[in-house]
Amino acid sequence: MYGLRLDPIAFSLGPITVHWYGIILGTAALVGLLLAVREGKRFGLSPDFFMDLLLLGVPSAILGARIYFVAFKWDEYKGNLLDFFKIWNGGIAIYGALIGAFICGIIYFRYKGYSFWRIADICAPSLIAGQMIGRWGNFVNQEAYGGPVEESFLRDTLHLPNWIVTNMNVDGVFHHPTFLYESLWNLLVLVVLLVIRRRPFLRAGELLMTYFIGYSLGRFFIEALRTDSLAFHGASWAASFINALWSPMGVVFDQGYLNPAEGNIRISQLISLLLIIAAIAMIIGRRTTGEANARYSDPVINYKTGLPAGATTEKKVDRKETDKESAGAHGESTLKE
Q1: What ranges does the record give for the region Disordered, renumbered to this chain (predicted)?
Q2: Where are the domains of the chain?
């Protein structure tokens, strides 16, 4: 008796079915929004600024995530293109979502007149919080799980509650809850980001880079446990190098099955490594060249107005007029004397 699997459908309203996957992703977006709004207030950024970003960024992220996934699974989708839109069945890739969101962010921030680095830093905790919550959508859909394990490992070693153990049973076989591993890792990264953003040493852009390093580090090791990784055929030395880096995990865990016909290198592992290297190089390079002269705690300046976020041109004009009046009054009193 394996128990009952969680129903992916939360409820139905006539012909409309609402999936838990969508509810969970919506919750992830809302939590991310609230975190960004709260931090943005410290810098004078209005909630509307982040609300508009959410309305533009979420569709961009979902589109990027879906295109990324389908591109590497084209043989499965080319016969039925309508399946491209069925995201409630899963099949979106986090790195694709990041690509879509960042393209949207670059355009939006530039349009609003703000530095990409400053706003992206504020949004970094929102990104990892959204990913932390979003992974539970994979849990409900019974996807993105790892290789087979004994039920006793889940119950007695990990001490997981019955409702998680039950849903980790797929066709009579229990699997690694990789969604849970990644969600907990993301929680740790979130705590780190929230702590270091208050430290005076942090420069503009470095909270975002820390997010990339932290998330990618966990993703590199957890990805190899999965059985559904997107993969490609690469050089054998590269595959051996990646496996060697992962090998310390092999003391406790076995890698998940990777179909040789699909490739020998897991794409997410490779991207994770490249992001870690790029983020570290970016931090060092920007500090060395002096590009990272602004600190995270500095005011966020709108380069279109030259004013800090939240300030208006009217205030600037009023200040000038006040200065003129003050100067005029001072002149009159000097003349009278």
Answers
A1: 311-337
A2: 9-304
